[in-house]
Specification:
By secondary structure, the chain is of the alpha+beta class. Helix content is 42%, strand content 28%. Strands 1, 2, 3, 4, 5, 6, 7, 8 and 9 form a nine-stranded mixed beta sheet that branches.
Length: 263
Amino acid sequence: MNIQVCSNEHKRGTMTFNKLRKYLLALSAVVLILSCISWADEDKDRSDIDKRIEASANVLNEIMATPDKAIPDKVMNDAVCIAVIPSMVKIAIGFGGNHGKGIASCRTGHGWSAPAPITITGGSWGLQLGGQAVDIVMIVTNEQGMQHLLSSKFKIGADASAAAGPVGRDAAADTDWKLKAEVLTYSRARGLFAGIDLSGSAVTQDKDETRILYGKFVPFETILKGNVTPPESSAPFLTAVRKYAGQAREQGELNQPKDASER
C-alpha cells in the first residue's frame, strides 16, 4: 500500500513539475515577444524623430534656395532661435485647427544648441473646408521671445508677441518687424511660401520625443542653452541652421578688412 501511495505522489509531483515547466516556458516566450515588440516600437519611434529632423532640414534648405522668396538674410542673421514644424496638419470643417511636431534650436555662446522636440497645437474659427499639410518655420527674434520658448510652453500672440514674417532678401529693410514681434511665423503649402498668423497656437516641449531622442527626459532649457550633446541624426538640421543663420555675425566680423595699422 505504501508503495502505491508513493508511486501516486511521484506521478502527481512529476505532472506538477511538467505543468510548471510548460508554464515557465510559455511565460518566457511571452516576455520575449513583448520585449521584441517593445524594441521594435522604440526603433520605429526613433526612426520617426530622425525622419522629422531630416525633414526639418529639407524645409529650411528648400525655402532658402529661392532668395527672392526666402526668409530675409537680416531675419536669419539676427535669429535667436529657429523652430521648424514639417508637415503640420491643418484641418478646417466649420472651424480651423492645427497640430504638428517639429524641432527647435537656439543660438548659444558656442554655436547652435542640440535640437529640442516641440509640439504646436491650436485653432481658429473659420468657414473654410478641407485639409492640408503645411510646413511651419518660426523665428524667435529677441531674448524675451527666447525666454518664452525656454519656459517649455507658451502661446503665440498671447505670451509672446508674433507677426507674419517678411519674405524676400530685402523685405526686412522697410519693416519694423523686430520692434513689434518676438516671434516671426512663416508657412509653406503647395509650394507657396509666405508669412502666416499663428496667434492662439500653443508651443510646448514634446516630452515623449525628447525621451526617445536623448534616451531620457531632458528639460527644454537644458537642451536649448547648449548643455546637451547633439545626437548624430541632428547633423543635417544643424548644418542647415548654421548655413543660413549660423555664426554669420561672428564670421562677418572675422572677415572684415583690417586697418593698415593692424596688418
